[in-house]
Amino acid sequence: MSLKKSILDLRKRREKVQKGGGEKAIEKQVAMGKMTARERIQALCDKDSFTEYDLFVEHEARDFGMDKKELHGDGVIIGTGTIYGSPVCVFAQDFTVAGGSLGLMHARKITKIMDHAIKMRVPLIGINDSGGARIQEGVNSLAGYGEIFYRNTIASGVIPQISVILGPCAGGAVYSPALTDFVFVVENITKMFITGPSVIKTVLGEDISMEDLGGARVHAETTGNAHFYAKSEKECFDQIKKLITFIPWNNEQKARAFPPKPPKFKGKIENLIPSDPRQPYDIRDIIRAVVDDSDFFEVQELWAANMVIGFGRLNGETVGFVANQPLVLAGVLDVDSSDKAARFIRFCDAFNIPIVTFEDMPGYLPGVDQEHAGVIRHGAKVLYAYSEATVPKITVILRKAYGGGYIAMNSRHLGADFMMAWPTAEIAVMGPEGAANIIFKKEIESSDNPEEMRKKKVEEYKEKFANPYVAAAKGYIDAVIEPSETRKFLLHAIEVSENKKVSQPEKKHGIPPF
Amino acid sequence: MAKKFDDLVDFPILSMKYKTRLTKKFKNRKKYEEPNPNNILSYIPGTIVDIFVRKGKKVKKGDPLLILEAMKMRNQIVMPFDGKIVAIHVKKGDKIPKNFLMIEVENTGK
User: Fold this and answer.
1) Which of A26, A49, A215, B64 is the most exposed place for a label (fewest CB within 10 A)?
2) Of B4, B6, B14, which to mutate for an interface test with A (greatest number of A Cβ within 10 Å)?
């Protein structure tokens, strides 16, 4: 073959394989309201940046007539590209090829790009759209899943891992996304479950639709499996790109710094807070009032909304926010919100992102359901995650910091580097009413007018203890600051902690209360 | 001025009442009920494949009451104490959800 001919031959081969499952299958994919795997990669990566590997891989299955089947790329596209100039490794399952089913070579391609990502120390983005294991390949596909899970675990805390669920992701396949750091879901497209509606119907007789069982909304709001929820694939890719700007390439680097920008918020921060401590406000307004460009990128917005987590920048540097949300369930700590905060703290710690905690919470949610759901062991995760974290840890107490919750929310006692409190802070073992009722029980009960006496004693307690000064007097709080000074103090804290170092006893790993 | 919010309810934590919103999960949470030892509930959803007792029958602790098939396993449900069958709420072939009241019994042991 002449050189020209062989180049033409290559082009022809490429063209054929790049069609995936062929026009009919692509039409079907589009009819389901989905983009093709190739379109998705184009939408995600910078223009012309994607380089594909293993385009010509073929499967080796011989049973059940598989030897006569040609599966282009074996149903998955892998390669590297850039997002706003940052390199990423990507795989995208191609539903048009045998339903994106996972066979041995399909899995080999995925593990290859995972190994590459781990070696190159760049983020991994996996786009899932697969009917599941390729039954004809039997135990080989199970082996494939296992090898993917193993790498997800090895890569955990080394490179950021992102899963995008753009189609079905069922059975064992769900555990790869579950092991990764961020899961993206899209309305009407994402379907994620261990056992589908038909199995549930036959085995248990329970009727439920695919969407109600494992649709995007369910995972974003009820299960907490998803971190980002989008109405369209386009919106989803924009979210991923934005996330990539906030996180580093790997655990040895810091997130890219951006030019510092003042917040867009120009009002007075104290005006965002109601004067009555029992009235709520949206903690996200406070975060937006202090971060660069008022740009707060919230994670898991819909699930356990009594805790707010997300990324923002201070003087151009990425920080992670963990904040109680008085607007939802009064900002209490409970099973789900503890889980949510703890995992986020560990992500930030693994990837050198300082943690800023805004505290305003009345304590743990009382109730039989909470106790029986294990609020003790779930709540312990927050203590563990904060104590273990060695990144700069900054806390601002806005209003209530009572009891166990005060300790849990990155208190000085768990190793906070900077503890600040607004003058409205109430740092106490419990709320004034409860405390007064216990401490002054005798006086109240023996009084001629117990109600009057109770009120008087509550006021007395408030006056003496419901403030930041008792804690400040012990040095548990470093500074009592005016709300308007918050950003200034945060910027200073980030600056001072640039070279923070802590040494801890050597160990293989801790045993967090998972 | 601080923003005003809709859908706020009173939310008591210890002795304080806060104004806040509720989550779907919180609204849908199950109220705790003290378990009644005289109610035999299904611990798993499944199908009743056999019933061995009739209303009014006296049964000893450990005697089989019925077979609840679930996940391809035939689970024998036995009498928790010496007693009497008060009512049977299922029949052969019934598909039942979890925590379904299958049989009411009475303790005649003491």
Assistant:
1) B64
2) B14
Query: What is the structure's pLDDT at B110?
Result: 63
A49: amino acid identity, one letter: S
A445: left (phi over 0), alpha (psi -120 to 50) or beta: alpha
**Which neighbouring-strand residues pair with B64?**
B78
pLDDT at A227 over 80: yes
In chain B, what are the domains?
Answer: 39-107 (2.40.50.100)
DSSP B40-51: EE-SS-EEEEEE
Positive or negative, the CA dihedral B14, B20, B25, B27 is positive
Return all residues near A265 (Cβ < 8 A) that are at least 6 apart.
Answer: A288, A289, A294
Q: Say whether both A425 and A445 belong to one domain.
A: no
- Tell me the C-alpha distance between A108 and A113, whole Å: 9
Q: What is the mean pLDDT of residues A240-268?
A: 97
Question: Bigger pLDDT: A441 or A340?
Answer: A340
Q: Does A125 touch chain B (CB under 8 A)?
A: no
Q: pLDDT confidence of A506, banded at 50, 70, 90?
A: very high
Q: Total domain count for chain A?
A: 3
The verdict on a CB contact (< 8 Å) between A363 and B14 is yes
**Tell me, what CATH number does A117's domain have?**
3.90.226.10
d(CA A86, CA A358): 31
Chain B closest CA to A138's CA: distance in Å? Answer: 23
pLDDT value, residue A316: 97
CB crowding A409-431: b at 16 or more within 10 Å, else e: bbbbebebbbbbbbebbbbbebb
Contact A321, A293 (CB under 8 A): no
